[in-house]
Amino acid sequence: MERGQKEEEGGGGGGDAGGGPKYSWFTWFVVLALLGVWSSLAVVYFDIVDYDSVIGKLTAYDTDGDGDFDVEDAKVLLGLKEAGRAAVRDSPEETTAPQVLKSEETSEPVAETPELQENEPTSPEPPTAETVSESDLRPARDDEAAVPLPPAVEDDFVPDDPRGSVHPYEDEANTIDTTGVLVEEPPPQESVVEAGQYLASSKLSQEAEPGVEAEKQPEPEPEPEPEPQTETPKEAESVPESDGTAEKQAEEKLKEKAKKKKPKLFNKFDKTIKAEIDAAEKLRKKGKVEEALRAFETLVQKYPQSPRARYGKAQAEDDMAEKMRSNDMLQRAINTYREAAELPDVTPDLLKATLKRRAERQQFLGRMRGSLATLEKLVQLFPDDISLKNDLGVAHLLLGDNKGAKKVYEEVLAVSPGNGFAKVHYGFILKSENKIAESIPYLREGLESGEPGTDDGRFYFHLGDALQRVGDNSAYDWYELGHKRGHFASVWQRSLYNVNGLKAQPWWTPKETGYTDLVKTLERNWKTIRDEALAMMDQNTGVFIPEEENLREKGEWGQYTLWQQGRKVGNACEGVPKTCSLLEKYPEATGCKRGQIKFSVMQPGTHVWPHTGPTNCRLRMHLGLVIPKQGCKIRCTNQTREWEEGKVLIFDDSFEHEVWQDADSYRLIFIVDVWHPELTQYQRQTLSPI
């Protein structure tokens, strides 16, 4: 049995006394040969390989011009033999001939050979901040290949722009490089963008999202001081530009230039812990706010003298405050920003970013004086930064300190006379001082500059208003431009605090408003309302306060207010108790947080400039109480009407209106503002007061 087992295990049977293999080498050879034959037959029969295609590709390496790829061609590729010039073939049958190019210098046909290509890079190198120009963003023509986009680059964190409205962690890490060009991985095998399309960052094209091709758009025109670019000025000028794009392009290019200088946020010590900081920052960028905050808190405990870690903690707290909608958490962030700025060895860029963000968040919380102090410190630390001085001027304006703001902007314009941001704000201040003619050139030139921060509806509003007051009809050109830029609903309707989609018309009937009961109550009781108002006028107690909004060209205009912003004004109703009692039943009026209820008396010789109210959320009722027979009229848009005693006029004061009082005695009316009838109950409860 033992021998039998040995023979079975040894696989004898080959006749070899030494116990050779079960099958001979010849048998295996035959089997493999048969497999090869059957495989070849299968390939040919089922057409698995397109031999014509393969051979056609190989002939691109045909260096000796014999129409195929052979041993001689391989020798040339390996550098063992010199290539001979290929003959240019004219026969249409020779479809495998090498591609023919023309030399730009000699215009002679030159065969494209591997030798001509061996010095070219196999993949394009990413452009640097210095080499990327506007030509990199323009659409590729049919006869040229698009400039390939650079690959993603792991970059240091760039601080959030305090003026930006984008949430700090909405942009994922590695989506935008320091040049402002959208970063994408180039698609495999294809790098050509079809003509009429272009890819840009979302800041350059609001419609373009990362990874999405934008719709056909005109080429951006070069700025007065363009970056070096490959396209010629003629090409750039030949493309028409849609209204409103010039200012946006100027703004975005300034941002791009700022991005090109990468801020230095890491001091020497922070660089040694950069990997830990980057890991925490990545969590914040991805919106994992709680994890990011814990990570930065750990870093601050571990490295209490690290400015960058402290700054990251402040940003994470800032993000948490927004997520939680917590003022307490936001105050924590403001305090941490201060701590980061006060640490030793803070880099100038980090110090500036920290204090700017702190000032912005202080303003958000309503800490205007604290924000002003922070900005004053910034200006002391960075006296050459004009943008910081401009921000300081805005801080003064937010405090109602026009005098302080005016001084700041005068300093800015002394060193930078063409600064558009300073000009529009300085013009705004001059107009508030009733220096109408003097304000116009500053407002106009500031808007024309197209600089960031100038494209604001208030500046179009005040420039047009100033031009109207000096009798310049170009006011309506500016109103039209403001409308095209999206600041005004129309040339006539120029209110700035609006709810979209509300019915808009200058004059209304009681039935259209749905407030017929209120109108009937006012008209039925108009004499009672009139008598109470006259009694207050006769007492001469000073309850009629002169109009203070600088709306009069001339004359006298007094107002006695009962309700304002949805609340009673002090004890004003004590003088007219019946009138107030009548109105208590109508919350559409007494609860209108964006309106007033008041008496208005206007003396002869008064003219009220064309103006608009602040919001489209209300309608205004005028009840005639004492109306002279002639000389009193009101215009709303291009329709002029007159008051009647005991009758209610209803108009939308967000449309331009104007008043004349050319009678020989005073005019007295009762003004009742009501919510726009299309506002929902929720909107009426949640809209902010005006």
From TrEMBL:
<dbReference type="Pfam" id="PF05279">
    <property type="entry name" value="Asp-B-Hydro_N"/>
</dbReference>
<dbReference type="GO" id="GO:0016020">
    <property type="term" value="C:membrane"/>
</dbReference>
<dbReference type="InterPro" id="IPR007803">
    <property type="entry name" value="Asp/Arg/Pro-Hydrxlase"/>
</dbReference>
<feature type="region of interest" description="Disordered">
    <location>
        <begin position="84"/>
        <end position="260"/>
    </location>
</feature>
<keyword id="KW-1133">Transmembrane helix</keyword>
<dbReference type="InterPro" id="IPR019734">
    <property type="entry name" value="TPR_rpt"/>
</dbReference>
<keyword id="KW-0812">Transmembrane</keyword>
<keyword id="KW-0597">Phosphoprotein</keyword>
<keyword id="KW-0802">TPR repeat</keyword>
<dbReference type="GO" id="GO:0005783">
    <property type="term" value="C:endoplasmic reticulum"/>
</dbReference>
<dbReference type="Pfam" id="PF05118">
    <property type="entry name" value="Asp_Arg_Hydrox"/>
</dbReference>
<dbReference type="InterPro" id="IPR027443">
    <property type="entry name" value="IPNS-like_sf"/>
</dbReference>
<dbReference type="InterPro" id="IPR011990">
    <property type="entry name" value="TPR-like_helical_dom_sf"/>
</dbReference>
<keyword id="KW-0325">Glycoprotein</keyword>
<feature type="compositionally biased region" description="Basic and acidic residues">
    <location>
        <begin position="135"/>
        <end position="144"/>
    </location>
</feature>
<feature type="compositionally biased region" description="Basic and acidic residues">
    <location>
        <begin position="160"/>
        <end position="170"/>
    </location>
</feature>
<feature type="domain" description="Aspartyl/asparaginy/proline hydroxylase">
    <location>
        <begin position="523"/>
        <end position="677"/>
    </location>
</feature>
<dbReference type="InterPro" id="IPR007943">
    <property type="entry name" value="Asp-B-hydro/Triadin_dom"/>
</dbReference>
<keyword id="KW-0472">Membrane</keyword>
<feature type="compositionally biased region" description="Basic and acidic residues">
    <location>
        <begin position="245"/>
        <end position="255"/>
    </location>
</feature>
<dbReference type="Pfam" id="PF13181">
    <property type="entry name" value="TPR_8"/>
</dbReference>
<feature type="transmembrane region" description="Helical">
    <location>
        <begin position="25"/>
        <end position="48"/>
    </location>
</feature>
<dbReference type="InterPro" id="IPR039038">
    <property type="entry name" value="ASPH"/>
</dbReference>
<feature type="domain" description="Aspartyl beta-hydroxylase/Triadin">
    <location>
        <begin position="18"/>
        <end position="79"/>
    </location>
</feature>
<comment type="similarity">
    <text>Belongs to the aspartyl/asparaginyl beta-hydroxylase family.</text>
</comment>
<protein>
    <submittedName>
        <fullName>Aspartate beta-hydroxylase</fullName>
    </submittedName>
</protein>
<feature type="repeat" description="TPR">
    <location>
        <begin position="386"/>
        <end position="419"/>
    </location>
</feature>
<dbReference type="GO" id="GO:0062101">
    <property type="term" value="F:peptidyl-aspartic acid 3-dioxygenase activity"/>
</dbReference>
<dbReference type="Pfam" id="PF13432">
    <property type="entry name" value="TPR_16"/>
</dbReference>
<keyword id="KW-1015">Disulfide bond</keyword>
